[in-house]
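dude i think i finally got it to work??
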Amino acid sequence: MLHFLYSLFFRIALPFVIFRLWWNGRKNPDAFVHWQERLGYVDEASEPVIWVHAVSVGETIAAAPLVKALLRRNPGIPVLMTAMTATGSARAKALFGDRVLYAFSPYDTPGAVRRFVDRVRPRALVIMETELWPNMISLSKRRNVPIFLINARLSERSARGYERVSSLVKPLLRSIRWIAAQAEEDANRFLRIGATPASVSVTGSIKFDVDISDRIRSEAVALRQRLGLDRSVWIAASTHEGEDREILEAHRAVLARHPGARLVIVPRHPERFAAVASLITSMGFTLKRRSDESAPSGGGQADDVNIPDEEFEVYLGDTMGELLMLYGASDLAFVGGSLIERGGHNPLEPAAWGLPVLSGPHIFNFETIYSQLSDGQGVFMTPSSQSLAECVIRLFDDQPSAIKAGQNALAVVNANRGALERVVDGIIERV
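look at this
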């Protein structure tokens, strides 16, 4: 009955969802393009595909090494990547080009999912992290498509929510062939809300298998030279509305102690780039934008006509797909989505660079990973703008301690590598 009511509600809400999509598309055209795909009207696949679903940018980045491994191990089987957001889809295309197929994920109505599955004929469905869409899962199960929940995580808050609708969730979990949980705590929560013990394994997080290519390393070195080798540089990454002002206030305090310091700030969502740029200048900081450096000039070189290098105080990362490189040009990293109740974002990319990691208190989306970093003494928790500033200043003042914390963070990453191959082996064994 709950499944029926869920589907009925989604059908009733669908016109309003489409209208909101169109409305958002007025400012961000990418949000509305290919809207028919969201109703299941996708191009037909020439042969059955491995369908990898990642809801947005974070999950898409996490899925990237898995997709690369699947392509390497099964070069004759096409991979279709889907995302719910335009930024997630754009990130997938930037990562893989024409090596994989792309589509927006269908809205979770019976009709949209049925049309989608009819056209792409998946031989397997790989869902990243915790995307439990009832119609996507139940219809795939009825079509005998093996379903995998990979890099699965489940916070205590989410587990309690799922327990309230156990009659809906339990059949979904029992339709999944394999749940590859990030940690023992995640596995226990999946079992608590209805998964069968035979279907759940603890594989670790594939996010530990961070790959920093030589190209990214060389780009990071070049950017750091432009930021200033003799300057202290910190990055605030994946920031959300409500955090930027606090971060900039922290940077004001940092500048009082280290006048030459530079902040690299990277909003999580591209539609906020312009608003954050305005906030930076309205608060009296001099600004340089990454997009101005990246944009080609008439001669095909970077058009570096913004604030001269020696003058700017804040560097706005307003391009897509460069966050990993921007981490590499910094001395320490604050990971956003954590000063507000957003649940935090992935701290393993800065840790893989050997950077000290700073975070606000709201990290429930990555609690296991933060616990590991904390146990390894590679992370600093900063619950306010003032404590963030104090921590940045302390690390800039005490370089040996900063280097040691970064080495600790990197050691945690290296100690937990290997989940990727375990996951790929598990999928291949069960398809």
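Confidence is low (pLDDT under 50) at residues 295-308.
im so relieved honestly
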